Each structure stands twice: as structure tokens, then as C-alpha cells.
Hints:
Elements: E1 11-15, H1 20-30, E2 34-39, H2 59-64, E3 69-72, H3 78-89, E4 93-96, H4 102-105, H5 110-116, E5 121-126, H6 141-147, H7 167-190, E6 196-199, H8 200-207, H9 209-218, E7 235-239, E8 245-249, H10 253-263, H11 278-283, H12 285-296, H13 301-310, E9 315-317, H14 321-325, H15 328-331, E10 336-339, E11 348-351, H16 374-380, H17 385-393
Parallel strand pairs: 1-2, 1-4, 2-3, 4-5, 5-6
Antiparallel strand pairs: 7-8, 8-9, 10-11
Amino acid sequence: MTEPLPLAGITVVSLEQAVAAPFATRQLADLGARVIKVERPGGGDFARRYDTTVHGQASYFVWLNRSKESLTLDFKTPEGREILEELLAGADVFVQNLAPGAAGRLGLGAAALQERYPSLITCTVSGYGTSGSWSDRKAYDLLIQCQTGLLSITGSPEEPARSGISVADIAGGMYAYSGILSALFTRATTGRAPTVEVSLFDALAEWMSQPAYYTRYGGTPPPRIGAQHATIAPYGPFTAADGRDVMLSIQNEREWAALCAEVLGLPALVDDPRFATGTDRVAHRAELNAVVAARFARLGSEEAGELLDAAGIANAGVNSVEEFLGHPALTERDRWRDIEVPGAPGPVRALLPPVDLGGVGPRMDPVPEAGRDTGRILAGLGRSRADIERLCARGVVDLAGPYHEDMPGDILPTQDNPA
């Protein structure tokens, strides 16, 4: 029997855009929270237009926004602000990642909201925090990668490289999500609703701690060496005779001895002073890599993997994204589900959330069209059909989805159609 979702009954109102805040709230929606995504009339979240690869929808948006309700609302107008305040009065969590300073100018800063709604948990996602000389700067993922030094240690010796995913946004979204969960627990156990604040810079700075320690106390930063590990050797890809790369990782002296004896066929290499310790192997990385590469050049990739497995050495093929999509760790464990996406001729495949809760199945509801839920949400706040039509005519809201063509009485909340 499936248990109720753990956040059922929790309402989240989010003035969100792009990646970080939507990632946090999607994970809350996965756990059953009602997430009302407030979007701009006339197009909604600009991340909807990052690309058009998923049947006309942006891949980022499809990933980040399933199971949410979309309300298009110009909350800078008096009528729009009144609607937003009504929603906040009944919400448990408010999330925003507006431009620097915008929330405060609109009276939506954490302190102002807590004074009006003491039980409301507020979560602010910013670029560089809300204090200090950098607080008013715009911040995008790649800029944060630059400022935290990530680019200086990512890439080849000749050229830095951006991380292939939006790592600063993802880090910020994860800390916002965990912070909100912690705040909900605090409110449930103490009655106090703490504020939550996360900056993308702080989130990625935490993930940069190991290179920071290495640099501060070692005197030099980790080198930029492509797909190899900066402080462990051998640890990286080696090309087999069939042209495929095999990644291997040596983590300790037992594995090093096994590599020498069982894979390289050079047991005497263990006693070579150039490679006696992990630090020595890093210092003589080029010589060591040449020995490993020469052996791999005589092995097929499958044979190399089998030898490494037999020696107890972690290894993996270097997959393409296409190969990842069919990975047995996903297919054999039934990690794919179908979700609905606006405009798609059929279901779109989506990965289950990575955390499995025993007896609880995550919610995997459709990705909303911009304004899909506007009519129903406004009706739930007591607005009549005439009120909704007037707000639409004045540009305060947009209507889309099943309530666009007509708005009969069934947009009013009922047991089968809750607001």
C-alpha cells in the first residue's frame, strides 16, 4: 500500500524563474507539496524559451517544473498584488529568486513577510547573498563558476571549460530544498518559522572547499588536467585498442599493487620510488600514464574492464549521453516514468527522483502550460467568472488550458476539483 506523500497539505507559492528556485520547488512537488508557480503574463517563466527540443518545450523547463500549478499574474498591479497576498496568507512556504533587491522594493522581503505572516517560511535564492557589496549584482550559473574558481580547475591545461551542467544553479536549488525541509521541521516541532536564504555563490563555494583547502595549505592550486583527477593518479581515461576510453581509479595502495600485478603485468612497479606513494604518483603522473596507456593500447576495452574488475579496481566506460539514457542501472531498476508535457504527441520520459522513500511513490504530474491553472486558482480565492474575465482583459492574468475557452461553474472548487 502506498503511503501518503510526506508534504501533502503543504502549499508553496513561488515567484521563480530559470533554474535554482524551480529545482527546489519541483522537489517539494515531488513529495506532494502544492506548488503554485507565479509566472509573468505574456509568456511566463523565461526558461520556457531556453530551447524547444522537447516537442516545442525547453528541456530545462520540462526537467524543473512537473507537478506544479501555473498562475500567470502581474503582481506589480494593485489587483495582482491583492491576489498574491491572498495566496501568501494561506501558504506555508514562499520562494523567490527575483532580481537583486526586487523583493524588498515590492514589500516581499523576508522580514516584511514574516511580520505580516508569522507562520510563513520564506526562502530567498540570490546570486551573492542579500548583504555586502556584491548583493546587487546579477548572477548566472557560468558567472558563479567563474567567481568561485571552478573554471580555473576545470578543462585542459590549454583552456578552461564550463561544467557541462548548471552546477551553481543545481547546488543553490539543492540547498534551498534542504533548507526549506529543515524550516518545515523546525516549524512543526517549535512553532517558529525560520527564514531560509541561499546564494548561488555560497552553494558553489561549499562545493569548492576541497580545492580551497588544497590551495591554501598546499601552496598551489590543483592543476587543470581535463578528465584526470588533479590530486590522485592514476585516475582518468585511457584509450583501449578498439578506440574506446576506459576510466579507472586507484584509491589506495592495495589497488595500486593489484593494478601493477594483475592488469599491467608489472609487479615490480610497486617498488619503483617514482610511484611509491599517492603523492609520488601525482608528481610523476606523465611517466605513470605512459606505462598505463601502453598496456591499454594492447587491450580491447571489454578485456581491460574485465581485468580491472577481477583486480577489484573501479572502472567505467566513458559513455555518451545517448548511452547513459539506456544505462542498465536505470532500465533494470525501473527508474523511468512517463509524464505529460504541453504540445507533446505522447508521454515524455522522466527520471524518478533519486531519493526513494519506502512505501512512498513520488508525484510525477504534468508540466503545466503557462497560466493553465489561473482560472481554477482565482476561483478558489472566490473570484467570479466576471472578475476573472476582467482581470484577463486588463492584462493582470492570462488564461490557458482547460479553462481558457469557457469558464463554467466547474472551475469553482469542489471535492473532485480542489482549489
